[in-house]
Structures are given as C-alpha cells and as structure tokens.
C-alpha cells in the first residue's frame, strides 16, 4: 500500500462567529486527506467528510496510468441517485452532492462522519468472483449452502448475504452470519443483512427492467453517535457491483463486464503480467469505456 503525505486542498466554506451569530464565509481553508484509495479520496472538512471520485480506473486490481474522463462524475451522480431511491430502505451518510469545493464539482459528496462497521456487506444474486471460487471449493459462500450444479455466472435461487472481513492489508475473508453477529451484535447483524439484501433487490429489479444484470454488490455501513445504522460509501456503482448486459448473459462462462470489457479485451492482447505499473490506455479504448459509463448512467437513471 502506497502511503502519501496528507494533501491540503482549498475549500471555500467557513463558518465564523461574531457577537453570537454564525456567518458562513467563502474564505479558503484547507482539507486534510484522511484516506486515499485506488480510485477515490476521502477528506475531512470540519465534522464532515468529502468523498471524491477520481477518473482513475483499475483492471485486474491495477490502477492504469490513463484516466477515463467523466468516470468520477458518472459514478458519483449514479451513487447519489441511488441514495435518493433507497432512502426508505435505510438512511445514508449523504449531506450534499453540491456543497463541495468547486474543483470537485459533480464528483464529490459531502458526507456525515460515521463510525464504520468492520464488515463488507455483500449481496449476491449471481455466481462470480470470490463467491464462485468459494462455491466451487465448499458448496457454500460465507456459510450459506447453495444447490449443486451451479456454474460461473449462474443465477442463484434467491439473493444471499455473503459478508467478508475488511482487511487493512491483503484479502478480505468470508464471514458467516454468526461471525458478523458475534462482532456487531445480533440485532445489528440482522439490520445489515436486511438492508444489504433489500438494496440489492431494489437495484437488481430496477436494472433488470433496463436490460442490465447486477450480479452482486458490496456495501459499507456506519453508525451515528446515537447508534443509527447508516449506508455509507458508494452504492450500486460499477466500482462496487458487477454489471452485465442482460442480452450477453450466458451462465457457464466468465461474463462480459458492462463497464470494463473494452479494457479487459484490450489488455488481454498485451504482453502485460497484470502487475503494476499498468499500461497506458489507447484513445479508442478510453473513448469506448467512457461511452459505457455514460450509457450505464443514462440507462439506469433515465438522465443524460
Ligand atoms: C470511511 N471508508 C472506506 C472513500 C470510501 N461516512 C464515513 N464516515 C467515516 N468513515 C468513512 C465514511 C464513508 N464512506 C469509509 N473509509 C472511511 C471506503 N473509502 C475508500 C476511499 O474512498
């Protein structure tokens, strides 16, 4: 893991108190980088956090040196749209999608700072990735037994909750429901499972009407000081979920990724061992990938 020095970024929003009144000002103050991920950054702004999505893209877990212009904006707007759709399922950490520093307009979200729960909450409706590997080894995923005879990309009889640990380094490990309950308590575990499955069902059902399969999704939750469980991070974006075109879905083989297939097809033809540093992306592959992200957004939300 690369460790970067805390970057300081200008933000035009300040609050000052004069003779007992609060004045919101536009003098600049600085934001501290609290977390830098592969494709996103998190800054602290007073009590709030600002989550910033970059245009960086990863293939096979390696971030490529060429950005996909507009990707950060598309994913941020999609996530905001979903948070709005899902407000009746569970409250979320969003404060504002617009009250953010101008340089990040459109690709940043002002969020409430929560105490994050140490569980990656995953819902799966189809078999892929680590879920597939676990099924092939044991017939189970995170302790959930599945029927025999399923293959890569198979649809599951019903969506399942397959949580994992949040490893600081290395790979996340599957957790059983009972392990989650031992970690966060029984009623919290039940709430995580309910909210995770309901978010997935809503997303997958809506996507199905738009010709898109959402195979699985990963959610993160946190707590307010009063103990309220809230949905955090991003929701139902192609960086947190597997999106497939329904017309291309064919169980029994690896599925084509709606967002990253052009990158995969192009990179498969290179002499690259899938280790960093990744190769620069040629302009036609950038353009095709960019169009995919836009199309995904428009299809899901009906917005341009
Ligand atoms: C938090 N992560 C892991 C951003 C997301 N609302 C919150 N309050 C406190 N902490 C976090 C959130 C959120 N969301 C979440 N780390 C801290 C996921 N990160 C990865 C990098 O980009």
Characterize this entry briefly.
This protein is α+β, with helices and mostly antiparallel strands and 304 residues long.
Question: Main traits of this protein?
Answer:
globular, alpha+beta, seven-stranded antiparallel beta sheet, binds ligand Q0N, D-amino Acid Aminotransferase, Chain A, domain 1, 304 residues
What is the succession of H and E elements?
EEEEEEEEHEEEEHEEEEHHEEEHH
CATH names the topology of one domain as: D-amino Acid Aminotransferase, Chain A, domain 1
The small molecules bound here are: ligand Q0N
Give the helix/strand class: alpha+beta
Number of helices: 6
Briefly, what CATH class of one domain?
Alpha Beta
Q: Whole-number radius of gyration?
A: 20 Å
Question: From the 3D coordinates, which CATH architecture of one domain would you assign?
Answer: 2-Layer Sandwich
End-to-end Cα distance: 37 Å
Name of the CATH superfamily of one domain: ATP-grasp fold, B domain
Query: What's the average pLDDT?
Result: 94
How much helical structure, as a percent, in the residues? 25-40%
Low-pLDDT runs: none
Q: Overall 3D geometry?
A: globular
- Major beta sheet, specifics? 7 strands, antiparallel
Q: Give the strand content.
A: 25-35%
User: Strand tally, please?
Assistant: 19
């Amino acid at each position: 893991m690369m460790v970067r020095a805390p970057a300081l970024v200008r933000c035009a929003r300040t609050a000052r108190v004069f003779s007992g009144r609060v004045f919101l000002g536009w003098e600049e103050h600085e934001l501290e980088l609290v977390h830098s991920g592969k494709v996103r950054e998190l800054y602290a702004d007073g009590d709030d956090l600002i989550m910033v999505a970059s245009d960086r893209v990863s293939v096979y877990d390696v971030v490529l040196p060429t950005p996909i212009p507009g990707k950060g904006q598309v994913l941020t707007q999609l996530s905001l749209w979903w948070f709005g759709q899902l407000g009746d399922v569970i409250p979320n950490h969003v404060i504002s999608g617009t009250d953010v520093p101008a340089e990040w307009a459109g690709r940043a979200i002002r969020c409430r700072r929560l105490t994050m729960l140490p569980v990656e909450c995953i819902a799966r409706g189809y078999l892929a990735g680590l879920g597939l590997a676990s099924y092939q080894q044991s017939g189970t995923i995170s302790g959930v037994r599945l029927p025999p005879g399923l293959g890569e990309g198979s649809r599951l009889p019903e969506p399942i909750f397959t949580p994992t640990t949040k490893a600081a380094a290395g790979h996340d490990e599957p957790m059983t429901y009972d392990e989650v309950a031992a970690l966060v308590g029984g009623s919290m575990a039940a709430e995580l499972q309910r909210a995770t499955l309901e978010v997935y069902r809503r997303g997958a059902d809506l996507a199905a009407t738009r010709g898109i399969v959402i195979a699985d999704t990963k959610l993160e939750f946190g707590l307010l000081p009063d103990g309220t469980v809230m949905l955090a991070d991003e929701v139902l974006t192609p960086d947190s979920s597997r999106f497939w075109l329904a017309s291309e879905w064919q169980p029994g083989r690896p599925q084509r990724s709606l967002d990253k297939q052009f990158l995969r097809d192009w990179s498969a033809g290179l002499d690259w061992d899938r280790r960093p540093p990744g190769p620069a992306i040629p302009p036609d592959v950038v353009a095709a990938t960019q169009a995919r992200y836009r199309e995904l957004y428009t299809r899901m939300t009906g917005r341009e």
